[in-house]
Design goal:
121 residues; alpha+beta; two-stranded antiparallel sheet; two-stranded antiparallel ribbon; 4 helices; 6 strands; globular; binds iron/sulfur cluster
Length: 121
């Protein structure tokens, strides 16, 4: 089973978290800056955090957003190994760990086509 070590939930050195919230140009707060992907619409699980009602401008506080059912589902999924299939692709890419707990070297998964464009993450 693939394992996830969410860097947004783990302490790192003297920081509370390795990764902290991100703010997208489209007006959403996100679990980390990596979630502000170029094509979020290709990641159906990630898009659950980008519903119109979760826009910062449509809420009174950040707590209203991160306490929402969508965010609760997100945190349940990234902390439940059996829910790995429901984890956003971006989280699998950055926060999946090897069996020994070491971080996957996601940069090695970059593939470029003959035209120089990124074809696979
Ligand atoms: S990629 Fe996902 S699991 Fe990893 S730090 Fe960001 S939100 Fe958390």
């Amino acid at each position: 089973m693939n394992k996830l070590k969410p860097q947004c939930l783990y302490k790192h050195d003297k920081q509370d978290h390795s990764k902290t919230y991100g703010h997208s140009a489209k007006g959403f707060i996100l679990p980390c800056c990596w979630c502000d992907t170029v094509n979020p619409e290709t990641d159906t699980q990630l898009m659950k955090l980008m519903k119109e009602e979760l826009l910062l401008e449509n809420n009174n506080s950040i707590e209203d957003i991160i306490d929402s059912p969508e965010w609760n589902e997100f945190y349940t999924n990234i902390t439940t190994p059996e829910n790995y299939d429901k984890v956003p692709k971006v989280c699998k890419r950055y926060c999946t760990v090897n069996d020994d707990g070491t971080q996957k070297l996601w940069k090695k998964e970059f593939k470029y086509g003959a035209d120089g464009k990124l074809v696979k993450w």
